[in-house]
Design a protein that fits this description.
Blueprint lengths: L1 H17 L8 E12 L1 H18 L7 E12 L2 E12 L1
Antiparallel strand pairs: 1-3, 2-3
Length: about 90
Amino acid sequence: MRKWIAGAGLLAAGLIAGAPAASAVATSQTFYGSSAGFGSEQAIRYATDSAWRKVASGGYTRDQCYVSSSQARPTGNGWYQADVAVFCVKP
């Protein structure tokens, strides 16, 4: 009986050791930036810069990310409020 238990233990250890390693799982995160500016283009540019700063502090590089959405809305007298989302994937 002891030989059988020892043999089963060695067999299980061999199967576990021979199993392929788990593949790495990609992580993703969305970073948001928001800003005001005079004109919609300026507001979006400032909001985009804000989002990219968060990307850098989050440990992602620019080549792992892209701007997934941006919008600007007028607040009056030529000023706009913009929101930008940058989506990142780290393999």
